[in-house]
Structure formats: C-alpha cells, structure tokens
Amino acid sequence: xxxxxxxxxxxxxxxxxxxxxxxxxxxxxxxxxxxxxxxxxxxxxxxxxxxxxxxxxxxxxxxxxxxxxxxxxxxxxxxxxxxxxxxxxxxxxxxxxxxxxxxxxxxxxxxxxxxxxxxxxxxxxxxxxxxxxxxxxxxxxxxxxxxxxxxxxxxxxxxxxxxxxxxxxxxxxxxxxxxxxxxxxxxxxxxxxxxxxxxxxxxxxxxxxxxxxxxxxxxxxxxxxxxxxxxxxxxxxxxxxxxxxxxxxxxxxxxxxxxxxxxxxxxxxxxxxxxxxxxxxxxxxxxxxxxxxxxxxxxxxxxxxxxxxxxxxxxxxxxxxxxxxxxxxxxxxxxxxxxxxxxxxxxxxxxxxxxxxxxxxxxxxxxxxxxxxxxxxxxxxxxxxxxxxxxxxxxxxxxxxxxxxxxxxxxxxxxxxxxxxxxxxxxxxxxxxxxxxxxxxxxxxxxxxxxxxxxxxxxxxxxxxxxxxxxxxxxxxxxxxxxxxxxxxxxxxxxxxxxxxxxxxxxxxxxxxxxxxxxxxxxxxxxxxxxxx
Length: 533
Fold this sequence. Notes:
Helix content is 9%, strand content 40%. By secondary structure, it is mainly beta. Strand 33 and strand 34 form a beta hairpin.
C-alpha cells in the first residue's frame, strides 16, 4: 500500500488553490460505463477560498467551505459547487478581510473601530467560526454541513443553497461536536463533544439525536437531542482533542489522546494577542493514551482504566463486539505530537523535497487494531486477557488496576498513511467486517486509493502519476452479496491534464477502474462527504 510515485513536479500544490463558485452545473465527459444503480449525488466538502484580498489563510482547515456535488442520471454525470454562505464567508466577502478567526488564522480587530468599541467587543468574547468545511450528513430529513465547533449549517443538497446556522449549544450541554457522527439504519444520530462536567471540570458527552418522528409530530429532531453518557476527562481544564469515536451494537469507544486543548489559554490568550485555535493545543508527554468504553442503551460509563502508548488519532475505522471483547480499528499516528502541526498550507505547498523533509519529523502513521476485554478481573495480573484466536492485540492487567493495551498492526509504511477510512457502513458498521478503504497519503500528499483486508492484511492500490484523489466512498451494488460488492467514488485532481479533475469510479473488489467523469475546471482538496441515494 506504499506509493509508487514521487512528486517532484509539485503539481499537488494546485489542490490548495482558490476556485470560483459555479453558476450552473457542468456536464462531465464520461469514459467507461457509469453503473446504472448510481442515480443519486456524491456530496463533498472542503476549503475553496484560501485568501481574502491580500490576507491569506494559513492552515489546511481555514479555507472557506465549498460544497461539491456530482449528480448521476441515466449514465450521465454533472458537476456543481457552491460556497456555503456561512457568517465567516459572508462577512469576509463583505469586508474584504478575514473577520472570524479560523483554525490557524487570526482575525485582526476591525481597523475601522475606535479603541472604545474594540474594548467592548473584547468583552463580548470570541466569535466562534461556523466555517463548515469538513463533512455533510443527514439529521432527520435535513442535511448539515459541519466542522467541529458548536455551529452546524443546514444546506439544501439539491441546489446547494445555505439555509440556516444552528447552534448546538441551544439544545445540549456541549462545546462543539465532531464532524464524524455515527448514524443508525433508522436515522438516529450519535455524536461526541467536550462539555463542562460536574464540579467545573471538563468531560465529554455523547449526544443522541432521534430520527424524524412518524405521524403529525414533524418537529426538528435536533430539538430532541439528549446526552446519553458522559466520559470523564483525564485533566480537569484540558480536554483531549476528539475527532471521532467508535460505536458497536451495544458500546461506545472513546480514545483520549495526549493532544490537549488548553482551555485557559484558549479563553485568555485569544483576544489579547493574535492567537487562533492551533495555538491552544499542547501535548501531555506523560499521559499516554486512555481508552474508555460505555454502554449505549441505557448509557453507562464503565469505570475501568484502559491505557496504551501515546498515539494521535483522528479516524476510527470500525468497532465490533466478539465473544466478550470489543475490537476497534484506528488510523493512528505514533507518539504524542499533534499531526495538525504539519498541515500548515506553507508546508503542503512546498517543493517535494521540502514536503518530504517535513514529513520525516512528523509522527508515523499506522493502522492498528485494539481489543478491550469486557470482563476484567483484578486478580489476573500480568496475563493477557484477550483470547480471540485471530488477533495478536493484547490487554494486560497491571498491579495498579489499569489494563495495558498493545495493538495488532494492520498496516504500517514509513510516511505512507492509510487515512480517511471508509467501510461498507450500511451493512457492516458496528459488525465484524473484512474490508477497509482509504486515501493513501504520501508524506501527507494524497496520491492513491487503498483497500485493506483487516483479517489477512492483504492490500490493493489504485494510483496514477500526478493524480491526487480524495477520500473514497463505498456504494453497495443493490443486489450485492459480498461485503465488497460495490464501487468506490473519489474525486481526483489531475492538474497537468487537459481536464484538470474527474470523478473516478472503482470496482471495490480489486480497485480496477469502472468509469471516470472528467470536468473542465479544477477541484481543490475535499475532506469528507456522502453518497445520497
């Protein structure tokens, strides 16, 4: 699963360049045959505006949210995109400057305001960004574009119009929610975020939003959101950064990494000196990684300390129960350093030799399987509690009552990450599964699509020179029998080509090309998205 290509020409820099809204959908040029069961839309989100006037955005997660849509109809494909009209975007366009502080870009105070009005707006506190550039998902019958703050943005997925900004703080005790909810077959949505717990210390809440009620009660399900369970925080004022969580049929898994948000710094430094979200992260170099589990229904925290070596972690792949164990697979990064430190746009736009040099210093990526025993006895010290025949992952009780977890490595390649993982979510989320699909990062540059058999560790790769794909989304063949009966959809930027971007459809079995739909415009980097039937 290692990249076969170097990128000395540096054409990857193009995926971090500003592009324009489209006034209307563009027809795509199809080669191959679009599978007839594709009749819906591929929706994707990412940054599309990387500077405002002469003020640049500095971090990969700062550019203004752009929503992309590929529509499938009768074997034809069209492409459409629109900037989401968030407050961050509208005010920036209106004032021709960065108005709201983003992840790695500080918004300077309005130069037109006098010292008094500046002083008073300082006391109003920080305006949190609503720049929803990370993902899109359904809640009830609506669709929301999201980032990781308390604001989510309702969008019309047909026209890509922005409908309304929703503040999750109005409904549940949460400081923000992740862009990676779990969604059950009936439409129930689960998410996690940090919150104020008991006794003014931090904690993490799992929030459940029910599906739309049948019958006359057509009220917004978000209003019925409830906290189902709370996880404690290892440090009172410093919650860990949480990007996703695991969910099996009966349990939640929460991985508390050593990457912390220093809340005091966050609240004080912010308005005083030009600081941004990135300035508020720090690593606890002695904590290691804490693993928490909780029962799902009814929600109940299980108070056993599971611990492992320090990792950074953004994406859970899948989680399932088997014979009294919880098995969960992760895309991990070894050590306690924050990987986002390597995702400044200046690093990603550097020449290939510089990109490689920077990645040499960064944490190393690894796909890992961890196993947590549900039945833990204090007396079994020093012995491996994991008895599943198919994994080398271990769990060992220490004399202090903590259970030490060692993972099984499913894939490891130096500076070759298997990231942005996807599975056959419809059928295998929370279940014992075989295949994971991912975006291959070569020194942080996305240059291949990967498939991993998590049982045998067999791998497959799709790759072409000077081509930069995005997260692959799995769509199942309607009458499909096997777990991997289906196709993968990914948007590929091919900056050197006559048509600089295309939608690629791969056979999920062997990653062979089924079809591509090329467009006449460039498409910048996208992070996450969904296929809407």
